[in-house]
Design brief:
Blueprint: E1 12-18, E2 22-23, E3 29-31, E4 34-40, E5 50-51, E6 65-66, E7 75-82, E8 85-87, E9 96-102, E10 132-136, E11 144-148, E12 151-154, H1 159-164, E13 173-181, E14 187-189, E15 195-198, E16 206-209, E17 213-217, E18 222-228, E19 241-247, E20 253-259
Antiparallel strand pairs: 1-4, 2-3, 5-6, 7-8, 7-20, 9-19, 10-18, 11-17, 11-20, 12-16, 12-20, 13-14, 13-15, 13-18
Amino acid sequence: MATPDPWRPASWSSTTRTRRPSTSPNGRWTGSTTTSRARRTRTPGRCSPIFRDWVPYTGPATPAYADFSSFRPGTPTTYHLSGRDLVTSPEDVAAGKQQFLTPVAGIPTSSDPLDVLGSALPLPEVDLPGTAATWTTEALTENVDVVGSPTLDLRVTAPSAAGTQLLDVGKLVLFVKVQDVDPDGKASVVRDLVAPVRVPDAGQPFTVTLPAIVHRFAEGHSIRLVVAGGSTNYRGGLVPAQVAIPTGSSDQALTLPVVP
Protein backbone atom coordinates (compact mmCIF):
# COMPACT_ATOMS: atom_id res chain seq x y z
CA MET A 1 0.00 0.00 0.00
CA ALA A 2 1.39 3.38 -0.97
CA THR A 3 2.28 5.87 1.76
CA PRO A 4 0.33 9.16 1.45
CA ASP A 5 2.45 12.20 0.70
CA PRO A 6 2.14 14.52 3.76
CA TRP A 7 2.68 17.58 1.57
CA ARG A 8 -0.47 16.98 -0.47
CA PRO A 9 -4.05 17.51 0.70
CA ALA A 10 -5.69 14.51 2.29
CA SER A 11 -7.60 13.79 -0.91
CA TRP A 12 -4.38 13.27 -2.88
CA SER A 13 -2.49 9.98 -2.74
CA SER A 14 0.48 8.35 -4.41
CA THR A 15 0.40 5.01 -6.17
CA THR A 16 3.35 2.81 -7.06
CA ARG A 17 3.25 0.51 -10.05
CA THR A 18 5.86 -2.26 -10.51
CA ARG A 19 6.38 -4.05 -13.80
CA ARG A 20 6.99 -7.78 -13.76
CA PRO A 21 10.53 -9.07 -14.33
CA SER A 22 11.15 -9.96 -17.94
CA THR A 23 13.85 -11.24 -20.21
CA SER A 24 15.08 -9.95 -23.51
CA PRO A 25 14.82 -12.01 -26.70
CA ASN A 26 18.38 -13.26 -26.19
CA GLY A 27 17.45 -14.61 -22.77
CA ARG A 28 19.25 -12.00 -20.68
CA TRP A 29 17.67 -10.79 -17.45
CA THR A 30 16.36 -7.22 -17.66
CA GLY A 31 15.09 -6.86 -14.09
CA SER A 32 12.06 -4.87 -13.01
CA THR A 33 11.18 -1.19 -13.03
CA THR A 34 9.11 0.83 -10.58
CA THR A 35 7.25 4.03 -11.39
CA SER A 36 5.32 6.36 -9.14
CA ARG A 37 2.64 8.86 -9.95
CA ALA A 38 0.26 11.11 -8.07
CA ARG A 39 -3.39 10.16 -8.25
CA ARG A 40 -6.20 12.55 -7.41
CA THR A 41 -8.97 10.68 -5.58
CA ARG A 42 -12.44 12.15 -5.40
CA THR A 43 -15.28 11.44 -3.07
CA PRO A 44 -18.43 10.98 -5.18
CA GLY A 45 -20.60 14.08 -5.07
CA ARG A 46 -17.80 16.32 -3.79
CA CYS A 47 -15.71 18.88 -5.65
CA SER A 48 -11.99 19.55 -5.50
CA PRO A 49 -10.62 20.96 -2.23
CA ILE A 50 -9.83 24.67 -2.08
CA PHE A 51 -6.87 26.29 -0.35
CA ARG A 52 -7.65 28.96 2.27
CA ASP A 53 -4.58 31.12 2.75
CA TRP A 54 -5.95 32.64 5.94
CA VAL A 55 -5.81 29.33 7.82
CA PRO A 56 -2.54 28.95 9.76
CA TYR A 57 -0.65 25.67 9.64
CA THR A 58 2.75 24.21 10.45
CA GLY A 59 4.35 21.67 8.13
CA PRO A 60 1.82 20.01 5.78
CA ALA A 61 -0.80 22.41 4.46
CA THR A 62 -3.65 19.93 4.97
CA PRO A 63 -5.47 22.10 7.60
CA ALA A 64 -5.73 24.94 5.10
CA TYR A 65 -7.68 22.85 2.58
CA ALA A 66 -11.45 22.47 2.70
CA ASP A 67 -13.82 20.13 0.86
CA PHE A 68 -17.30 21.21 -0.20
CA SER A 69 -20.20 19.03 -1.27
CA SER A 70 -21.28 21.45 -3.99
CA PHE A 71 -19.59 22.91 -7.05
CA ARG A 72 -20.91 26.29 -5.86
CA PRO A 73 -20.55 26.06 -2.09
CA GLY A 74 -21.15 29.70 -1.18
CA THR A 75 -24.45 31.16 -0.01
CA PRO A 76 -25.31 34.22 -2.16
CA THR A 77 -24.93 37.36 -0.07
CA THR A 78 -26.14 40.56 -1.70
CA TYR A 79 -24.67 44.05 -1.32
CA HIS A 80 -26.85 46.73 -2.90
CA LEU A 81 -25.40 49.82 -4.57
CA SER A 82 -26.50 52.84 -2.55
CA GLY A 83 -25.07 56.29 -3.28
CA ARG A 84 -21.38 55.52 -2.71
CA ASP A 85 -22.02 52.66 -0.31
CA LEU A 86 -22.69 48.93 -0.40
CA VAL A 87 -25.55 47.95 1.93
CA THR A 88 -27.05 44.57 2.74
CA SER A 89 -30.64 45.70 3.31
CA PRO A 90 -32.83 46.85 0.38
CA GLU A 91 -34.53 49.27 2.77
CA ASP A 92 -31.23 51.13 3.23
CA VAL A 93 -30.70 51.79 -0.49
CA ALA A 94 -30.32 55.52 -1.15
CA ALA A 95 -30.65 57.40 -4.42
CA GLY A 96 -27.52 58.76 -6.01
CA LYS A 97 -25.47 58.88 -9.16
CA GLN A 98 -21.79 58.51 -10.00
CA GLN A 99 -20.27 59.60 -13.29
CA PHE A 100 -16.94 59.01 -15.00
CA LEU A 101 -15.32 59.18 -18.42
CA THR A 102 -13.91 56.26 -20.37
CA PRO A 103 -10.63 57.14 -22.14
CA VAL A 104 -10.01 57.65 -25.83
CA ALA A 105 -8.48 54.75 -27.76
CA GLY A 106 -8.73 52.44 -24.74
CA ILE A 107 -5.64 53.83 -22.99
CA PRO A 108 -5.03 52.71 -19.37
CA THR A 109 -6.46 54.85 -16.58
CA SER A 110 -5.35 52.67 -13.66
CA SER A 111 -2.07 51.53 -12.18
CA ASP A 112 -3.00 47.97 -11.32
CA PRO A 113 -0.10 45.47 -11.21
CA LEU A 114 0.97 44.37 -14.67
CA ASP A 115 -0.04 40.77 -15.40
CA VAL A 116 3.14 40.12 -17.35
CA LEU A 117 5.35 41.15 -14.40
CA GLY A 118 3.19 40.36 -11.36
CA SER A 119 4.77 41.23 -8.03
CA ALA A 120 8.15 41.89 -9.69
CA LEU A 121 6.96 45.45 -10.32
CA PRO A 122 4.50 46.43 -7.58
CA LEU A 123 2.32 49.38 -8.47
CA PRO A 124 -0.19 51.32 -6.38
CA GLU A 125 -3.68 50.05 -7.19
CA VAL A 126 -5.48 53.28 -8.03
CA ASP A 127 -7.68 54.68 -10.80
CA LEU A 128 -7.23 58.20 -12.12
CA PRO A 129 -9.77 60.68 -10.74
CA GLY A 130 -12.90 60.85 -12.86
CA THR A 131 -12.35 57.45 -14.52
CA ALA A 132 -14.14 55.10 -12.08
CA ALA A 133 -17.08 54.72 -9.72
CA THR A 134 -16.79 53.00 -6.33
CA TRP A 135 -19.08 51.64 -3.64
CA THR A 136 -17.81 50.50 -0.23
CA THR A 137 -19.28 48.68 2.76
CA GLU A 138 -18.87 49.85 6.31
CA ALA A 139 -16.14 48.14 8.32
CA LEU A 140 -17.07 44.47 8.61
CA THR A 141 -18.11 43.27 12.06
CA GLU A 142 -17.06 39.70 11.26
CA ASN A 143 -14.98 37.80 8.72
CA VAL A 144 -16.55 37.31 5.29
CA ASP A 145 -15.13 34.25 3.48
CA VAL A 146 -15.85 34.14 -0.26
CA VAL A 147 -15.50 31.01 -2.41
CA GLY A 148 -16.64 31.25 -6.01
CA SER A 149 -17.52 33.86 -8.63
CA PRO A 150 -19.00 37.21 -7.57
CA THR A 151 -21.72 38.60 -9.82
CA LEU A 152 -22.80 42.17 -10.45
CA ASP A 153 -26.21 43.31 -11.65
CA LEU A 154 -25.77 46.76 -13.13
CA ARG A 155 -27.45 49.43 -15.20
CA VAL A 156 -25.58 52.37 -16.73
CA THR A 157 -26.41 55.27 -18.98
CA ALA A 158 -24.02 56.39 -21.72
CA PRO A 159 -25.78 58.41 -24.45
CA SER A 160 -22.79 58.54 -26.81
CA ALA A 161 -22.25 54.77 -26.56
CA ALA A 162 -25.95 54.18 -27.21
CA GLY A 163 -25.42 55.87 -30.57
CA THR A 164 -22.29 53.94 -31.55
CA GLN A 165 -22.94 50.47 -30.13
CA LEU A 166 -24.35 49.02 -33.34
CA LEU A 167 -20.72 48.38 -34.23
CA ASP A 168 -18.50 46.37 -31.90
CA VAL A 169 -15.82 49.07 -31.98
CA GLY A 170 -18.39 51.52 -30.67
CA LYS A 171 -19.62 49.45 -27.73
CA LEU A 172 -19.00 50.66 -24.18
CA VAL A 173 -16.19 48.79 -22.42
CA LEU A 174 -15.98 48.75 -18.62
CA PHE A 175 -13.78 47.01 -16.06
CA VAL A 176 -15.22 45.54 -12.86
CA LYS A 177 -13.15 44.58 -9.83
CA VAL A 178 -13.57 43.88 -6.12
CA GLN A 179 -11.17 45.37 -3.61
CA ASP A 180 -10.28 44.56 -0.01
CA VAL A 181 -9.85 47.77 1.98
CA ASP A 182 -7.87 47.49 5.22
CA PRO A 183 -8.57 49.61 8.34
CA ASP A 184 -5.93 52.14 7.22
CA GLY A 185 -7.78 52.69 3.94
CA LYS A 186 -5.33 50.82 1.69
CA ALA A 187 -7.26 49.05 -1.08
CA SER A 188 -6.03 46.07 -3.09
CA VAL A 189 -7.76 44.24 -5.93
CA VAL A 190 -8.56 40.72 -4.74
CA ARG A 191 -6.10 38.35 -6.46
CA ASP A 192 -5.46 41.14 -9.02
CA LEU A 193 -8.51 39.85 -10.93
CA VAL A 194 -10.45 42.21 -13.18
CA ALA A 195 -13.51 41.46 -15.33
CA PRO A 196 -13.46 43.33 -18.67
CA VAL A 197 -16.98 43.89 -19.96
CA ARG A 198 -18.23 44.87 -23.40
CA VAL A 199 -21.67 46.23 -22.51
CA PRO A 200 -24.21 44.67 -24.89
CA ASP A 201 -26.67 47.58 -24.72
CA ALA A 202 -25.91 50.78 -22.83
CA GLY A 203 -29.01 51.79 -20.89
CA GLN A 204 -30.27 48.24 -20.37
CA PRO A 205 -29.58 46.12 -17.24
CA PHE A 206 -26.84 43.51 -17.59
CA THR A 207 -25.03 41.00 -15.38
CA VAL A 208 -21.28 40.57 -14.97
CA THR A 209 -19.74 37.34 -13.67
CA LEU A 210 -16.35 38.06 -12.15
CA PRO A 211 -13.45 35.58 -11.93
CA ALA A 212 -13.80 33.07 -9.09
CA ILE A 213 -11.91 33.85 -5.88
CA VAL A 214 -11.11 32.23 -2.55
CA HIS A 215 -10.63 35.15 -0.18
CA ARG A 216 -11.29 36.27 3.38
CA PHE A 217 -12.41 39.83 3.98
CA ALA A 218 -11.25 40.14 7.57
CA GLU A 219 -13.17 41.75 10.41
CA GLY A 220 -12.49 45.47 10.39
CA HIS A 221 -11.86 45.53 6.62
CA SER A 222 -14.31 46.77 4.00
CA ILE A 223 -15.49 45.40 0.65
CA ARG A 224 -15.28 47.79 -2.30
CA LEU A 225 -16.75 47.47 -5.77
CA VAL A 226 -15.04 49.38 -8.58
CA VAL A 227 -16.42 50.00 -12.08
CA ALA A 228 -13.71 51.66 -14.16
CA GLY A 229 -13.33 52.97 -17.68
CA GLY A 230 -9.77 51.79 -18.26
CA SER A 231 -7.31 49.09 -17.27
CA THR A 232 -3.56 48.54 -17.24
CA ASN A 233 -3.86 44.98 -18.56
CA TYR A 234 -6.76 45.22 -21.03
CA ARG A 235 -7.53 47.39 -24.03
CA GLY A 236 -10.51 49.62 -23.35
CA GLY A 237 -13.16 50.91 -25.72
CA LEU A 238 -11.97 52.90 -28.74
CA VAL A 239 -14.60 55.60 -28.37
CA PRO A 240 -14.64 57.76 -25.19
CA ALA A 241 -17.95 57.95 -23.37
CA GLN A 242 -19.48 59.75 -20.42
CA VAL A 243 -20.91 57.06 -18.13
CA ALA A 244 -23.43 57.53 -15.33
CA ILE A 245 -24.47 54.85 -12.84
CA PRO A 246 -27.58 55.76 -10.86
CA THR A 247 -28.60 54.05 -7.63
CA GLY A 248 -31.85 53.97 -5.71
CA SER A 249 -33.29 50.57 -6.60
CA SER A 250 -32.39 47.24 -5.06
CA ASP A 251 -31.78 45.56 -8.42
CA GLN A 252 -28.29 47.11 -8.70
CA ALA A 253 -26.25 44.75 -6.54
CA LEU A 254 -23.01 42.86 -6.00
CA THR A 255 -23.52 39.24 -4.94
CA LEU A 256 -20.75 37.29 -3.19
CA PRO A 257 -20.79 33.50 -2.55
CA VAL A 258 -20.05 33.38 1.18
CA VAL A 259 -19.16 30.21 3.10
CA PRO A 260 -19.28 29.66 6.87
